[in-house]
Specification:
With 415 residues, the chain is α/β, with parallel strands linked by helices. It has 14 helices and 10 strands. Bound molecules: L-rhamnitol (RNT) and zinc ion (ZN).
């Protein structure tokens, strides 16, 4: 008997149909963020320094310097990750042929190469307007800026981005999630919290007043608690966007690094699913602050996956990743983080969720705790390896060889 067959038997004892689980898992697309590959740099002709209160540390060799390099790196990472996924782009990854194109002037044609590449690789695309790393965002304010011209610039950028999203959705026959995140906030205690929020609300209303086909483009808004330089106040807070999304039928996007340190996204999903058809995630790993470390298979990741799986919400929660670590091989970072997200979902699917729910209803907390703990050492790894083999990607740590080879052949030659 193979390790897989032996493992399968153990799960079958609990009524878990492993073959069915693997078929279901194969259908889950994770949105892999392109910006891990070049430290959120992008390819604008007149590139600005990274701003907006986010930061990338480290200078590991081999950062992608061109869109072609980034695509090649993404292809490498995706070849080590089981399943078919999506790639999440930012507006600063436009290709403008050496010409300066203002962000409010961006058009689908500036993303033609990405679409062509996505088609060739059977990938979906998601999108984000970029409201940071720009002279018009230098004071950390965009859609809530007191200056109407600056607000208008960013409003127009967001409208242009939604149209680019619809172009992706239509071309790839796979709806694009276009997510708006802004850095707006203040370093120190504000004397007026309401006025900037009113302006943000008005800006969003204007952005969404333009009709963009919902079959192709889905709008999301991402909140935040604080950033570097906006420690005391962020305009687009959780309550702000939760209310806005509910009232305007938009998706709320929860980034796991954007809450108080003991406040968990896993505990929010069920509440939100009761009131919204869909929600979106940026799965990240905050270490003491919103540090965007590579996602590991920790308790919170498993808990998030369990909440999605046990509530039968795989079609309702759009899972995206958001981390950027420049201190390790960037392709390994993508591979580790994305494989972990998929592992967490598999783990959740290999849990006797219905039985555990029943135990809770019966008040049998002893057995609930006992089983949750015992399942942690069930032969999950054997099923994971089988899944990787089945989908033609390396099992266990064997993907590391590929990454090392690519580092030697390609990354080490970049300066
Ligand atoms: C910043 C947000 C945002 C960005 C990306 C690059 O705190 O998490 O999602 O990380 O848009
Ligand atoms: Zn995020």
């Amino acid at each position: 008997m193979t390790q897989y067959e032996a493992a399968k038997k153990q799960y079958e004892k609990w009524g878990i149909n492993v073959e069915e689980v693997l078929e279901k898992l194969e259908k889950v697309a994770i949105s892999v963020h392109c910006w891990q590959g070049d430290d959120v740099g992008g390819f604008e002709v007149n590139q600005s320094e990274l701003s907006g209160g986010i930061d990338v540390t480290g200078n590991y060799q081999g950062k992608a310097r061109t869109p072609d390099e980034l695509r090649s790196d993404l292809e490498k990472a995706l070849s080590l990750i089981p399943g078919k996924h999506k790639v999440n782009l930012h507006a600063i990854y436009a290709e403008t042929n050496g010409e300066v194109v203002e962000r409010d002037q961006l058009e689908p044609k500036h993303f033609e190469k990405w679409v062509e590449w996505a088609k060739k690789n059977g990938l979906g695309l998601d999108f984000n307007p970029t409201l940071f790393s720009h002279e018009k965002a230098a004071d950390g304010l965009t859609l809530s800026h007191p200056d109407a011209d600056i607000r208008q610039y960013w409003i127009d950028h967001c409208i242009a981005s939604r149209k680019i999203g619809a172009y992706f959705g239509k071309e790839l026959n796979n709806p694009c999630l276009t997510n708006i995140w802004i850095p707006d906030g203040y370093k120190d205690v504000p004397s007026d919290r309401l006025t900037p929020r009113k302006r943000l609300k008005d800006s969003l209303d204007e952005i969404f007043s333009v009709d963009v086909d919902e079959n192709y483009n889905i709008d999301a808004v991402e909140s935040k608690l604080f950033g570097i330089g906006s420690e005391a106040y962020v305009v687009g807070s959780h309550e702000f966007y939760l209310s806005y999304a509910l009232q305007n039928n938009k998706l709320c996007l929860l980034d796991t690094g954007h809450y108080h340190p003991t406040e968990m996204v896993s505990n929010k999903i069920s509440s939100m699913l009761l009131f919204s058809e869909k929600l979106a995630l940026h799965v990240s790993r905050p270490v003491r602050w919103d540090s965007d470390h590579v996602v590991t298979l920790d308790d919170e990741l498993r808990e998030i996956a369990l909440e999605i799986v046990r509530n039968d919400a795989l079609d309702r929660v759009m899972i995206g990743l958001d981390f950027f670590d420049a201190s390790i091989n960037r392709i390994a970072a993508w591979t580790i983080g994305t494989r972990n997200m998929i592992k967490a979902l598999l783990y959740a699917m290999l849990t006797p969720n219905e039985y555990l729910k029943q135990l809770q209803e019966e008040g049998n907390f002893t057995e609930r705790l006992a089983l949750i703990e015992e399942f942690k050492t069930y032969p999950f790894g054997a099923i994971w390896n089988y899944y990787c083999e089945k989908l033609g990607v390396p099992t266990q740590e064997n993907w590391l060889e590929d990454v090392k080879q690519y580092e030697e052949d390609v990354l080490s030659k970049r300066s």
